[in-house]
Amino acid sequence: MKKMLAMALVLMLTLTAAACAETFKMGFDAEYPPYTYMGDDGEYTGFDIEMCKKVCEKLGWELELVPINWDTKLMTLDMGEIDCIWSGLTIDVIDPEAYCLSTPYSDNSQMILTRADSGITTLSDLAGKKVAVQLGTSADLLLQGDQKALADTFDGGEAVKLPNYNDCFAQLEAGAVDAIAIDIGVAANKIAVYGDEYVMLDESIASEKYGICFRAEDTEMCKQVEDAYMELVQDGTYQALAEEFGLDVSALCLLETEGE
Amino acid sequence: MAKMSLGTMILKMSEGLGTTCGIFFLTLLFSLPLGLVVTLLRRSRLGVVRGITKVYISIMRGTPLMLQLMVVYYGPFYLSKWISKTFDVTFRLRWSGDVLVPIIIGFVLNYAAYFAEIYRSGIESIPAGQYEAAQVLGYSRPQTFLRIVLPQVVKRVLPSVTNEVITLVKDTSLAFTLGCMEMFTLGKSIANSQSKFTPFVIAGVFYYVFNALVAFVMARLERRLNYYR
Question: Of B106, B121, B148, B229, which shows the fewest CB atoms inside 10 Å?
Answer without folding.
Answer: B229
